[in-house]
């Protein structure tokens, strides 16, 4: 059984805390609160990223007819995980989650609650092993059929942008025509307070996460057909109407969805 160290904060558990999940410890809450004291907007970013994921999956299922999902760098289960959203609209949907974090692995059983008609699987692998990921995913998914690759908040952990682009290209190369790429990541150029807070966090010795200019996030979709409205701040991507009628505001998190021709 994986040993969980509860004496030091953990980035996946901090993100879980910001999302309102329960898979975290007091040390994570303290670290999360310290970050929000510097930049309160991080909670909005975390929840807006999760909301974008849900809307993009809903589009993929209901409008694009996709029934297979490969979610790499899934993190800890919270609310509206990929399989929950997909199977809400299409119970027969099949999902493969990929992560190489021992903490996430310890919680994998919480993810493996597929509808009877569909399937979910969990693979313990690194983003840096795209060909192995595709091989393992092929045990659960039919990779001759359109599949949606989900990369939510993971590419910022790859320090070199060219390497991150290459990893995306290699993963998409293993998926057939009609497949989709969904990416959202922290961005520069919208919120200086977020940039200052994240740069400071990276200097603490924690696992760094690099915010990138919007054009670098857009470059992940090179060679693919972007779905309208393209690469935008995530609250602006096909937003649901707000109960109070207010318009969504841009934040330092950009994303998009694109189809492989």
TrEMBL record:
InterPro entries xref list: SAM-dependent_MTases_sf, SAM_dep_MeTrfase_SAV2177_type
TM segment ranges: none
EC number annotated for this UniProt entry: 2.1.1.-
Record GO biological process: methylation
Signal peptide from the UniProt entry: none
Region (Disordered): 239-261
Keywords: Methyltransferase, Transferase
Class in the EC hierarchy, top level: transferase
Statement: the UniProt record of this protein carries the keyword 4Fe-4S: no
Name of the featured protein: SAM-dependent methyltransferase
Gene Ontology MF terms: methyltransferase activity
Source organism phylogeny: Bacteria, Bacillati, Actinomycetota, Actinomycetes, Kitasatosporales
